[in-house]
């Protein structure tokens, strides 16, 4: 239907809708989903968008990624609820006294494991230790991402 639109225009409209939704305090996940869906509708049309959506929902690889992400997120919630994260950081603190080293070491260790959703696994650990350093959420996210990926150039399993 509207597949004649210029891809640049479609992209700009989608980014505009995304920014508008964020400005109106809509959740990030909902804003990303809505703008991606709009981009698909404007570039592929309704019928092709429905086809792609159905193919994605029954694709075994997509389903395994969805379930893996869900269960990793569930595991991180269990870590927090059972306070195993606190035990881990406390026991690590017995050997390493510097919280800055601990907060960087935790995501680096998780980064050694080639798993999907490593950020979800290391985030609760970083959160607990970063609170001791009074880091804000942006700095916590930066530390988690940076130190989880610091081993990529030298660790062959990451590829």
UniProtKB/TrEMBL annotation:
Identification of the protein by name: DUF401 family protein
Top-rank taxon, per record: Archaea
Keywords: Membrane, Transmembrane, Transmembrane helix
Keyword Membrane attributed: yes
The UniProt record lists the keyword Cell wall biogenesis/degradation: no
Spans through the membrane: 6-23, 30-54, 60-80, 101-123
A family per Pfam: DUF401
């Amino acid at each position: 239907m509207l597949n004649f639109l210029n891809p640049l225009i479609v992209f700009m409209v989608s980014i505009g809708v995304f920014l508008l939704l964020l400005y109106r305090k809509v959740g990030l996940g909902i804003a990303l989903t809505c703008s991606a869906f709009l981009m698909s509708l404007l570039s592929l049309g309704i019928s092709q968008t429905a086809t792609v959506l159905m193919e994605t929902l029954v694709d075994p690889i997509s389903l395994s990624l969805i379930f893996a992400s869900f269960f990793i997120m569930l595991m991180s919630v269990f870590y927090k609820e059972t306070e195993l994260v606190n035990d881990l950081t406390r026991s690590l603190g017995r050997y390493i006294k510097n919280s800055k080293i601990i907060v960087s070491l935790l995501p680096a260790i998780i980064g050694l494991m080639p798993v999907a959703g490593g950020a979800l696994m290391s985030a609760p650990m970083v959160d607990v230790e970063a609170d001791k350093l009074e880091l804000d959420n942006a700095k916590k996210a930066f530390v988690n991402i940076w130190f989880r990926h610091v081993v990529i150039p030298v660790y062959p399993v990451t590829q």
